[in-house]
């Protein structure tokens, strides 16, 4: 989701579709191509899809026409049943009580008022002061929400929404906007202005909104490589924990408009921004294209735990307030736009670990992608590329190619267990320490070796790890892998077959000699009892 590009899909990249029924399937791994039966997905012994996969990217489900219909249905419903701003600011029950200080926020109960206070206290004084009804300059003025760049405090502004034959506008200039212009050289606001309707990008948990929520931006949220990260919008960043809210570049106004989507003619139906609207807006910035979830109970989807690894040298991370190399986070089960990547060495050791981007920064402006030492093993992944084509006989054929490579992340990465169960920081520390030990001794790496190492590691650290379970706690046949699009045993066996070349590539970037090759019997995951193996696929 990029503000300033209209009411369009979140970030998207079409995912490879499963082969059609009856299509021929071939599998290529490490340069070798092998055909499977034309039964496609129906026979997993011949094609390595994961039957338990439950984490397709959100972009796959986005339907612009359906979202437009949803927003218009909400506007029509509220037109029939009354102003939704008379409802509770937290839920959709009638708001029988008001905030005693500002009188604008409505609540159905004391519980909802207490739940909303961390957010409402940021705006209560503004609604009671300059945004109070008696301060309205004229009947043509309406409250708009302004997120300044250089202050951590959002503001309420009175604006007059005007329209001509060619365009709509209100007076956007204020001290913060002028300072942003001076810092960036973006002098022509008409050219730099981008307008987005945010309702189609987020369903707000099914809550009623009743009007468009329109964002007016003066920068691009994807322009991190062109602009100093210090120009990230500080007031938006202040609305949530570091790394838990969508970053924005430049100042942003938001206002309410009662027109249905598609009804662009006629005068604007501008409305006042209310505390309930502000709740919708903040949830949008937190949840749309969400990387890390601030409030799992509010998130409209399944949430799983993970460990985020952060680049502390990143100017972007410094600007958003990330100050620790590791933190425990909650993330959506379903990633925004790209499948989770299996970590090659983890799968070789019998661990169903995946990695995904942990930051919405497209680039931090560095010349080289971030490859932190903490990712020296975790950052090496398997990608599976599918390509559909017609063979010489005119039959549709699908080629599946596994590619081992070093993933490049920008700012942060999140490590996850395929089951959605928690990975703990000691697990990552022990994983890196074990492989470092193997490298130093030029020994043999194996699942059994890592289990023995963990037992010694836990004993050495004593009470600090007393209640920490084994990294293999969830590596059992009854624990299903939900994150991997491809069967975990397919990935593990591919890693086992190619472990020599994997080590060579990993150690080449570390300028170290490879460890000893594993014994032939250690090359299979079969001893770990993880279900069917794909023996014969690469023979």
From TrEMBL:
GO terms for molecular function: DNA-binding transcription factor activity, RNA polymerase II-specific; zinc ion binding. Residues 88-124 form the MYND-type domain. Residues 1-23 have a biased composition (Low complexity). Residues 1-44 are annotated as: Disordered. InterPro entries: TF_DEAF-1, Znf_MYND. It comes from the Eukaryota. GO terms for cellular component: nucleus. Pfam families: zf-MYND. Keywords: Metal-binding, Zinc, Zinc-finger. PANTHER family: DEFORMED EPIDERMAL AUTOREGULATORY FACTOR 1 HOMOLOG SUPPRESSIN, MYND-TYPE DOMAIN-CONTAINING PROTEIN. This is MYND-type domain-containing protein. It comes from Staphylotrichum tortipilum.
């Amino acid at each position: 989701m990029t503000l300033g590009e209209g009411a369009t899909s979140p970030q998207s990249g079409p995912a490879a579709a499963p082969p059609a029924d009856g299509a021929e399937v071939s599998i290529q791994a490490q340069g070798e191509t092998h055909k499977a039966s034309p039964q496609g997905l129906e026979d997993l012994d011949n094609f390595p899809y994961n039957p338990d996969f439950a984490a397709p990217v959100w972009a796959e489900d986005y339907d612009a026409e359906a979202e437009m219909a949803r927003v218009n249905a909400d506007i029509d419903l509220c037109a029939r049943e009354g102003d939704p701003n008379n409802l509770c600011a937290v839920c959709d029950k009638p708001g029988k009580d008001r905030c005693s200080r500002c009188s604008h926020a409505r609540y159905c109960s004391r519980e909802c008022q207490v739940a909303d206070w961390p957010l409402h206290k940021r705006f209560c004084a503004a609604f009671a002061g300059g945004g109070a009804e008696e301060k309205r300059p004229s009947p043509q003025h309406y409250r708009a929400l302004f997120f300044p760049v250089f202050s951590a405090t959002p503001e309420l502004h009175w604006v007059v929404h005007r329209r001509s034959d060619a365009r709509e506008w209100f007076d956007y200039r204020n001290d913060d906007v002028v300072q942003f212009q001076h810092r960036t050289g973006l002098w022509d606001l008409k050219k730099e202005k981008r307008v987005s309707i945010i309702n189609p990008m987020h369903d707000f948990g099914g809550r009623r909104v009743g009007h468009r929520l329109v964002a007016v931006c003066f920068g691009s949220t994807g322009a991190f490589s062109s602009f100093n990260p210090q120009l990230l919008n500080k007031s938006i960043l202040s609305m949530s924990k570091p790394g838990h809210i969508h970053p924005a570049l430049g100042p942003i106004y938001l206002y309410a408009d009662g027109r249905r989507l598609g009804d662009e003619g006629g005068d604007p139906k501008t409305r006042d921004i209310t505390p309930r609207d502000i709740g919708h807006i903040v949830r949008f910035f937190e949840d749309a294209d969400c990387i890390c979830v601030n409030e799992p109970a509010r998130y409209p989807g399944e949430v799983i735990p993970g460990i985020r690894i952060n680049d502390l040298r990143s100017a972007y991370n410094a600007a958003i307030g990330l100050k620790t190399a590791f933190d425990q986070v909650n993330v959506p089960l379903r990633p925004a736009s790209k499948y989770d990547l299996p970590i090659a060495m983890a799968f070789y050791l019998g661990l169903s670990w995946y990695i995904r981007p942990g930051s919405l920064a497209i680039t931090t402006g560095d010349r080289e992608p971030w490859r932190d030492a903490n990712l020296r093993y975790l950052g090496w992944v398997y990608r599976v590329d599918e390509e559909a084509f017609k063979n010489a006989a005119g039959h549709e054929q699908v080629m599946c190619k596994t590619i081992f490579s070093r993933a490049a992340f920008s700012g942060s990465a999140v490590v996850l267990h395929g089951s959605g169960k928690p990975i703990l920081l000691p697990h990552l520390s022990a994983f890196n320490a074990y492989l470092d030990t193997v490298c130093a001794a030029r020994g043999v790496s194996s699942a059994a070796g890592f289990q023995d190492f963990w037992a010694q590691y836990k004993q050495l650290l004593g009470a600090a790890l007393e209640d920490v379970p084994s990294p293999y706690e969830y590596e059992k046949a009854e624990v299903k892998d939900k994150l991997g699009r491809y069967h975990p045993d397919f990935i593990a066996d591919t890693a086992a077959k190619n472990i020599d070349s994997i080590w060579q590539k990993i150690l080449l970037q570390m300028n170290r000699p490879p460890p000893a090759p594993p014994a032939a019997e250690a090359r299979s995951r079969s001893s770990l009892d993880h279900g069917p193996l794909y023996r014969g696929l690469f023979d």
